[in-house]
Design brief:
The complex is a heterodimer of chains A (637) and B (315). By secondary structure, chain A is of the alpha/beta class. Chain A folds into four domains: 87 residues, Roll (Ubiquitin-like (UB roll)); 75 residues, Ubiquitin-like (UB roll) (Roll); 138 residues, Nucleotidyltransferase, domain 5; 252 residues, no CATH class. Helix content of chain A is 27%, strand content 23%. In chain A, the strands form seven sheets. In chain A, strands 14-13-12-15-17-16 form a six-stranded mixed sheet, with helices on both faces. A six-stranded mixed sheet of chain A has the order 28-27-18-19-20-29, with helices on both faces. A five-stranded mixed sheet of chain A has the order 2-1-7-3-5. In chain A, strand 19 and strand 20 form a beta hairpin. In chain A, helix 9 packs across helix 13, helix 9 packs across helix 14 and helix 11 packs across helix 15. The N and C termini of chain A lie far apart (65 Å). Chain B is an alpha/beta fold and 315 residues long. Chain B has a single domain, classed as TIM Barrel. Helices cover 39% and strands 14% of the residues of chain B. Chain B has an eight-stranded parallel sheet. In chain B, strand 6, helix 5 and strand 7 form a beta-alpha-beta unit. In chain B, helix 7 runs parallel beside helix 9 and helix 9 packs parallel to helix 10. The chains are: A alpha/beta (637), B alpha/beta (315). At the A-B interface, helix 15 of A face helix 6 of B.
């Protein structure tokens, strides 16, 4: 031994976390030891390339791998799991290697929002609570209560002009005197303006909550955010009660043409919101009075219906919405059961079929901030797609139908407790192994389960590439049921509701139509800017599946393009992610307006290539086998 | 003339070729396909096998044909074998297509056994290739065509239509007895290709497969059929699409003759009743051969003669 093992300092950016390691330490191990998350899809074997990091300064011993292009390697990109620390180094973890951890924290653990996708913003929620200790009135200073309040605010803060809502005036006198003029003011900061919207006695600064809702055509998802902590503390999902008026937006619009139709639909969605609020307040033990703000992200039709705006003109050429950005609305005026001071903000939309949900998805995932050509796919009923980068964004809606949210499927359900979210088949003779959300006996199957089931059945030759069941296989779970051929996922004795849980050939054909619409949608969108699928540098997938989407299976059935796997990131519910960030930061809210104005919408219903592309995609995985080189279909029995 | 300028015909370059498929048994077997250029573009590539015509024969006497169509066969309408022989001997048919209209559930609903008996009788009585065409009812065709395949296992038939809804059982039977399959899909290049992939997954050899893209008569959407056939040929010849590189068969006679324009009418603007159907049939067949057909199933001897002459002049 000539010298002791050398020690080096490793700094992980953007969080600036430092750690000291011995010379030659594996970079991924160093990150894990420092509790810095880097994606490593393959577990650090070097196979997947998801752990790519940028070496800003310093030396690492790291070979060029197939996952890293020559130019990226020259620019300092390395696979963390293949790198050994040889000096002090500063390592930048790119968004693509951080994406899933952020999602995990946001969507699943509802943890702190310290690791976000959209960057360059500060925690600056539109609602701020401020403790005021105001000198009480006296005979010498007999200014009225409201003026006293405003004067105090002016004295202590820099805001030049603060306005006040009048509705709390009736409780102002009593509230102010209850704790001898020690009060908490609730401030709404919006577009350079600040307004006092509520007043409470004593120090109530930690009681500051906001609601965010993703109002989908099929399902409505809500989260309750603690603005004092910057985190989500409860979430809930319900089917949109408008479903009883039709499964898709066209049916809903048609309904509005009938007398009282719009009112009924408006009430249905508000009822859904109130149910979700009830659930989230109960599970979090938060008082209703603690809610100070609401952010809604939704497709354009849903926004119209929520605000009771006539949607008729959305469905006829030239497809023009009444408005794309809405002013703040007092939520109680819509029937939402919150206090009078609570404002509701709708994320701006782009066009009739490109809504605020897609804008918030883009904002949340930060695609508009990055250079790589990114395809954003929202795997939901309306199947919105975005293609572009920081310079331009193209978008379209592919109308995939409710399949991926469990709608229109005999035993389909949302990704909630009791839903089969994964299924494993060893071969064409074995029993399926089911993974059920919550771990109880299954009640139905959700989107991720449907995708995994179809891929497994195809792989083992239990369905044809056209989606028909191979009854000739003779598997005892294949049978002719009420709706024709079906596969039994769980027999009555194993299910949670005493009924057989089945997936029928009709369900399978619905799935094929849905995935074909999405594929044809993004294929057409990418072609429209003269690009090929292989030009896509990143694919960001948004969807409300269970805890994960199996990318491999989604490719096997032709839902996602057959691209190198390291290009894919799944961000869970992108719309809700964006809405949450908007509730946390006015910076992000400002970005959402910019993103909405950046997007160019392509109308697929007017596009001749789309239909042909759609028929071509109505096959598993696709009629053009060359588009799915990694998917092998063997000869079937 | 001292002018040196020579007109150079612009030429399409091809990288694909249509598979040559041999129909029928040895002796009078007929090979179709094999071309490496667009229809009749002999100046650009090879057309080793000019398009062929198969003449129609029905298992039961037709009840809805115009007189013009019935006239040439009035003596053989109730004897399919005699009808087939007349087509061969008198009209030079190189192939026969036996239409099993009698098995139609909405018609005579003849049993599979009856149908197979008729097919067997015709198949053994002629030496040219025999195409057997069902009613496109999935259950009935499965029953009938499977039995036909089995009964005529010593002959090499061409059996159709085989569709996405019934391909598994019919194709399995056809292949195990060495027959050729007509893969039938409804006027869409993707559907045509999808069915060919499914058949290939099932193990159907490429050289036992011909394609029926579905056709219609003049005035009933023939432009659409033309366009689909043309696109199939473009994919096969210029994009090397193996799954679409099979010969195309056109079941055009019944489409041409069932139109109201081919039928009896007092409207003198429609022209002479005896010629109308013939010309409509000949024109429809010719249009679709120009799009890329390799075999045309035809009815009237005069229409056959017109088209045969055209093929002769063009190839």
């Amino acid at each position: 031994m000539t010298e002791q093992t050398k020690k080096y300092k490793v700094v992980f950016m953007p969080d600036g976390i430092e750690t000291i390691v011995a010379e030659g330490t594996n970079l991924l191990d160093a990150a894990i030891a420092a509790e810095v998350h880097i994606n490593a899809g393959c577990g650090g074997t070097g196979a997947c390339g998801t752990c790519s990091v940028l070496i800003k300064t310093g030396l690492v011993d790291s070979p060029k791998t197939t996952s890293i292009s020559n130019s990226d390697y020259q620019n300092g990109l390395r696979q963390a799991c293949k790198s050994r620390v040889m000096s002090d180094v500063v390592v930048e973890i790119p968004a693509s290697s951080r994406l899933e951890t952020a999602v995990l924290k946001k969507e699943i653990q509802n943890s702190h929002n310290d690791d976000l996708l959209c960057s360059g913003w500060h925690f600056s929620p539109p609602i701020e609570k401020r403790l005021l200790e105001i000198s009480p009135p006296s005979l010498q200073d007999n200014t009225n209560d409201m003026a006293r309040l405003l004067r105090h605010m002016d004295d202590s803060q820099t805001h030049p002009e603060i306005k006040a809502d009048l509705h709390f005036a009736k409780k102002l006198a009593a509230t102010a005197r209850h704790d001898n003029w020690r009060v908490t003011a609730t401030l709404l900061k919006f577009d350079e303006h600040t307004r006092i919207i509520n007043i409470e006695s004593g120090d109530m600064r930690t009681t500051n909550y906001a609601l965010v809702f993703d109002i989908g055509t099929t399902a409505v998802r809500g989260q309750l955010l603690d603005l004092s902590q910057g985190q989500a503390i409860a979430q809930a999902t319900e089917y949109n009660k408008q479903i009883s008026f039709g499964a898709d937006v066209i049916a809903r619009i048609t309904q509005c043409g009938r007398p009282g139709g719009l009112e009924k639909l408006q009430k249905a969605v508000v009822d859904t919101l109130n149910t979700l609020i009830e659930q989230m307040l109960a599970s979090s033990k938060v008082a209703r009075s603690g809610i100070n703000h609401i952010v809604v992200t939704a497709n354009t039709v849903m926004v119209h219906l929520l605000l009771a705006l006539d949607p008729q003109f959305l469905r006829t050429s030239p497809y023009v919405p009444t408005l794309s950005s809405t002013p703040l609305v007092k939520a109680y005026t819509l029937g939402i059961e919150v206090e009078e001071h609570v404002r509701l903000y709708c994320v701006p939309s782009v066009a009739s079929y490109i809504g605020g949900d897609i804008v918030s998805g883009i904002v949340g995932s930060g695609i508009h901030q990055r250079q790589p050509l990114t395809l954003y796919i929202d795997i939901g009923t309306n199947g919105e797609i975005v293609f572009g980068n920081s310079e331009w964004l193209m978008t379209a809606a592919a109308s995939a139908g409710p399949t991926f949210e469990g709608g229109g499927i005999q035993c389909g359900m949302l990704a909630t407790n009791g839903a089969i979210e994964d299924i494993h088949l060893e071969n064409d003779k074995t029993e399926p192994v089911l993974k059920v959300i919550g771990g109880d006996p299954p009640l139905g199957i959700c989107g991720s389960g449907i995708i995994n089931l179809a891929a497994s059945l195809l792989k083992h030759g239990l369905i044809t590439q056209a989606g028909r069941f191979n009854m000739e296989n003779g598997h005892h779970r294949l049978r002719i049921g009420e709706n024709g051929a079906e596969y039994v996922l769980a027999f009555d004795a194993q299910s949670g509701n005493g009924k057989d849980i089945v997936f029928s050939e009709i369900d399978m054909l619905n799935l094929i139509r849905s995935k074909a619409a999405l594929y044809a949608g993004y294929h057409t969108l990418v072609s429209s800017v003269d690009k090929k699928m292989t030009d896509i540098e990143q694919v960001v997938i948004s969807g409300t599946f269970g805890n994960h989407l199996n990318i491999e299976n989604a490719i096997a059935i032709g839902l996602l393009p057959d691209l190198p796997r390291h290009k894919f990131s799944f961000i869970g519910n992108g719309a809700l992610l964006g809405a949450r960030l908007i509730a946390f930061s006015n910076d992000v809210r400002n970005q959402s307006s910019i993103v909405a104005s950046m997007m160019t919408s392509l109308e697929l219903s007017e596009n001749a290539d789309f239909m042909s592309s759609y028929t071509a995609a109505m096959f598993l995985p696709h009629t053009e086998a060359a588009l799915f080189p990694s998917v092998k279909i063997g000869n079937l029995p | 003339m001292n002018d040196n300028a020579v007109f150079e015909l612009p030429k399409q370059s091809y990288n694909g070729q249509i598979r040559a498929v041999t129909l029928g048994s040895e002796g009078k077997a007929v090979t179709v396909g094999g071309e490496s250029c667009y229809p009749f573009h002999c100046f650009e590539g090879a057309l080793p096998h000019a398009p062929r015509i198969a003449m129609e024969v029905y298992d039961t006497p037709p009840t809805d044909w115009p007189d013009a169509a019935l006239a040439p066969f009035s003596d053989v309408l109730s004897d399919p074998l005699a009808w087939a022989r007349k087509c061969i001997t008198n009209y030079g048919a190189e192939m026969i297509c036996l239409q099993l209209a009698g098995t139609d559930l909405n018609g005579a609903d003849a049993s599979a056994e009856q149908a197979a008996g008729i097919v067997k009788n015709v198949a053994c009585g002629i030496d040219v290739p025999l195409i057997v065409w069902g009613t496109a009812n999935h259950e009935k065709d499965t029953e009938v065509l499977r039995l036909v395949c089995q009964t005529c296992q010593d002959r090499k038939l061409i059996v159709g239509p085989v569709e996405e809804g019934d391909y598994k059982k019919i194709a399995a039977a056809a292949i195990s007895y060495g027959h050729t399959i007509v893969a039938s899909s409804s006027i869409d290049i993707n559907l045509a290709k999808q069915l060919n992939i499914l058949l290939s997954n099932l193990g159907v050899p490429d050289n036992q497969l011909v394609l029926d893209p579905t056709v219609s008569g003049i005035g009933y959407g023939i432009e659409y059929c033309y366009s689909v056939i043309e696109r199939i040929r473009m994919a096969a010849l210029t994009q090397q699409d193996e799954k679409l590189s099979c010969p195309i068969i056109l079941n055009i006679a019944r489409e041409a003759w069932k139109s109201k324009e081919a039928g009896p009418s007092d409207d003198i603007k429609l022209g002479e009743a005896t010629k109308r159907g013939i010309l409509l049939e000949a024109m429809a067949a010719w249009v679709l051969l120009m799009a890329g057909g390799d075999v045309a199933i035809m009815r009237h001897p005069n229409a056959v003669s017109l088209v045969r002459d055209m093929i002769g002049e063009m190839s």
